[in-house]
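Technical note accompanying the year-one report. For the benefit of new consortium partners, we illustrate the data format agreed upon in the data management plan: each record pairs a sequence with a structure-token string. No post-processing was applied to the example shown here.
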Amino acid sequence: MKRFLIATALVTSMGTTAMAATQGEINTINSYLPDLDVSQLTDTQVDALIGIAMSNEDRNQKMMKMGGYIYSGNEVDTPVPATTVAELEAFAPSIDFSGMTNEELAQAVTVLNGGDSYDQKLLKLRSLAEASDVVTILPLTAGEVATIKQYDPNIDLTKLSDNDILIIQAAIAGGDRNNIRSVIQSVTNS
């Protein structure tokens, strides 16, 4: 009888404790949200994220849904890690991400980690920033002007749109000379 009571007590107590995510679940979730500390999630959150990951949607849609769920759509509003925000700022230095909500930042991270081209990512990030009313286009610095003039000495900087400036600033921040040349040529030819 004692063994039966002990076994019953063990089974009952096991039913109330949280189960840790398996390594496979952690790997799956981190393949979509690499900066997320899965060990801090509840079983319900892990199950929801795995459900999204196993859905028939494309990768970008899964990343958006998972990010939205974790960063805003559930009972724990987990902040986007500072390192991730720093990556966004490094990629698009002329966009101010500080006023974005966690959900908007999660969408921005999804864009950053997506498979789009550099320019497409930049345009999507700008669109997200504009939707959240936090877009800040910083004026060209003297160094940026010098770099632009190096590639196109005859460019009329006063005719550049905010979008052109954003794209050029991001290319310069990226440091790839071929990309800088390509971006400046595409802006001046449009």
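Partners are asked to follow this layout when depositing records. DSSP finds ten helices and no strands in the chain.
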